[in-house]
Design a protein that fits this description.
heterodimer; A: mainly alpha; three-stranded antiparallel sheet; 3 strands; elongated; B: 8 helices
Chain lengths: ~110, ~270
Amino acid sequence: MTGMDNSLSQSEFYILLSLAIKSRHGYEIMKQVEQDSAGKVIMGPGTLYGSIKRMLQSALIEEIAGDHARRKYYSLTDKGRKSLTSELQRYNDAVELARGKDLFKALGLI
Amino acid sequence: MNHSLIRGSERLYGFVLHFYPASFRREFGQEMAYVFAASLQDACAEQGRRGLTKLWGRTMADATKSLVIQHIEDQKERYMKTDSKNGILQNSFVRVALATALLMLLPLAASLLLEDFNWGVFDFIFTGGLLFAAGLAFDLITRRSGSNVYRAAFAVAIATAAFLFFSNLAVGVIGSEDEPANVMYLAVIAIAVIGAVAVRFRPGGMAWAMFVAASAQASTIVIALVFGIHNYPESSVLEIFAVNGFFMTGWIVAGLLFRWAADSEYKVGAKAVG
């Protein structure tokens, strides 16, 4: 988590998003983030595990047993799921607001 | 794709991992190596050598950024443990920042009182930043050493590097500060820093790193004379020898002190074993 308002960093948001459906190990997370962000967020191992470390400390994710005994798998905790939900809700509210004010057209996005 | 190139890349990344803090490396090092190896296979399968080059470009940028972040976080975690017991002045950041602020009062007073002393905001920021970085490096690296000789050696080495760096950018060791040949002195500092990191700041290795830096400093005299820099109006032969000799003395003194610290460590170890 970053900042005073408990909002997520971009990396943390995409990692939570990648774990929303199922638990994954590091490389799967990295590929899923790349896919979900349409190639805009490409994390290297240092950034990925730096974020994972902080998210484990903040109890947003947890380490669990997975298919491969030698790989570490991660899944969302209740706190992480709530955090992702509220972040998505925040984005959704912002999009609704922008749509209501016809901002997408005004800003030339559509 | 050449198999040895892939194996070499994996080994090289394994080496890069050694620069992360030990606790981080223990917890995630193996996973990071696996993620890199998997990325490597994908990149090579998709784009061959071009993929490998792109992956290394991304990986080095990622490693540089995350190394800095992880070391800062590691230090923060240590301070949080020690500061709760020992108070805020035990915190290196606070202590070095205070010392830097006190030292910076000198140029501030000079700029207020002396007409010829005209430092701009950039000069203050640059000098303050340099002093802070040098002080922090000294404090963080020597804090776990019980040897005063090691601390003294490190202080001499840092002072030599900082003074060389500062004087080179401010007035130039050879000619003016705009003289391209002065890049040599940044290389001398880089040699000392890379050597120190490579030997992991151990006293015996540090002694060699300092002697190599002194040799590099000496070689700048030869280069300056061969390329005729002594013919410039600002740099006579005597000046080139005097200025470089001054910095060589700094490196050599630091090296001798490190050797002394290494010898003392060896004797203490031998006594403990004996």
